[in-house]
Structures
1.
Amino acid sequence: MLCCMPGVAFVPALLVSWSSAAFIISYVIAVLAGHVEPLVPYISDTGTKPPESGVFGFMINITALLAVITMYIRYLLIEKQNESSHFVRSSCNMFTLCIGWMGCTGMGIVATFQELAVPSVHDIGALVAFGSGVVYITLQSIISYKSCPRWNTYFVCHVRMAISVISCIAFIPMIVFASKVSMTKIDWTPGEKDYTYHFMSAICEWTVAFGFIFFFLTYIRDFQRFSLRISTEIHED
C-alpha cells in the first residue's frame, strides 16, 4: 500500500508507521517480560533490558534514518516551491534541516547508549532529540504559514502549529520533572520516592514523541505532489 502512494508520500507514511511500531512493540515486550510497569514508563525504559533492548535499538536507529530522509525531502520540496514563490529564505530552510538532523543524531544516541548502561550520554542524546525536534516542527510550522495559500491550506498550518505548541508545552515540564528524579531505574511502582515526578515526566515524554509522529503524518499530503527523478547520462568515447 505504501508503494502505491503518489509522489514520495510513502516516505513519511513509512516513518510514521515504523516509529509507532518501534514504541509500541518495545513497550509490549517490556511489559510482558515484567521489566516495566504498564502505567506510563519512560520510552527508554521499554528498551533497556533484553530482549526488548535489541528491538528498540534497531527500530529507533531505522526511525532516525527515515527521519533524516523525510526531512531532506521536505527541504528539497521547500526549495523547489521557493523558486517561484520566494516565501522563505534558503538559509532558513537549511537551518531548519540542520536542526532536524541534530534531533535525528540525538535519537541515534538514545538507541545506541542505553539508559542504565551509560545514563549521562543517553540523557544528553534524549535532550538533543526532543529539544531539536520541538524546534524543528515549530520552524516547519512557521514555514508552512509563509507558504499559504499556494502550497498549504490554513487548516494544515493550524494543525501543525497546534501540534508544535502542545509539544513545546509538554517539553518544558518533561525536563523539569525529570530533573527532580533522584535515581535512575526502570521498575517504578506507585507510592515510592520520586514516582510522581517520574510519572508526570513520562506522560510529557510520550506526548512529545507522538507529537512528532502526528506532525510527520501531515507531510503525506505535501509529499504526494513531489517526486524525485534520478537521471543517468551515458557518454560515449
2.
Amino acid sequence: RQEIRKVVQALEQTAREILTLLQGVHQGAGFQDIPKKCQKAREHFGTVRTQLESLKTKFPTDQYYRFHEHWRFVLQRLVFLAAFVVYLESETLVTREAVAEILGIEADRERGFHLDIEDYLSGVLTLASELARLAVNSVTAGDYSRPLRISTFINELDSGFRLLNLKNDSLRKRYDGLKYDVKKIEEVVYDLSIRGLNKEATVGAGGEK
C-alpha cells in the first residue's frame, strides 16, 4: 500500500502540472495558444503513462478493485484532463478507449489495469464544469462563437447521461451538477442573443455550427 501511495502521489503531481498548463486557456491571450498548450499537455501524458506502468507492478493484477480506492480520484482527474485536451483540439468527446490509450492502460476489464467506466464518466462530468467556465471566459475574451458550440456539446452530453441508469451515488451527485452547468451555459448564450452578439458569432464563424 505504501508503494502504491508513492506512485499515486507522483501521478497527482503530474496531474497538477497538466491542470496548471491547461488553466492558461481561460486567460484572454490563452485562446491563441491552445494548440501549443495541448501539445505540451500531451508530452506530460508521457510521464503519466510511465507512472501508471509503475503502478501496475505494485499489486497482483487480479486485485485491481481491492486497491482501486487508492488511485480512483487521480484517475478520474486524468480522464478529465485527457478529455479537456481532446475537446480543445477537436471539440469532440473523447471515448473511453481513446482515454485509455492516452493513459497507456486498458479499456477492457479482462485485460488487467483498466479504466473503469464510472471513473471515465466522472472525468467527463468534470469536463462539463470546466467548459461552463470556458464559455463565460470566452465572452470576456471576445470569442462569441465558442459558447454557442460549447452549449451544443454540453446539451448532447446531457442527453447522453439521461439515457444512463446511474446506480453509483457519487456519480449521481456529479450528474446533478451537470444540470447547473447546462443552465450556466444557457444563460451565457441567452445573454449573447439579447445583445445580438450570437448573430455576429455565427457570421464570424463563417456559418460554423
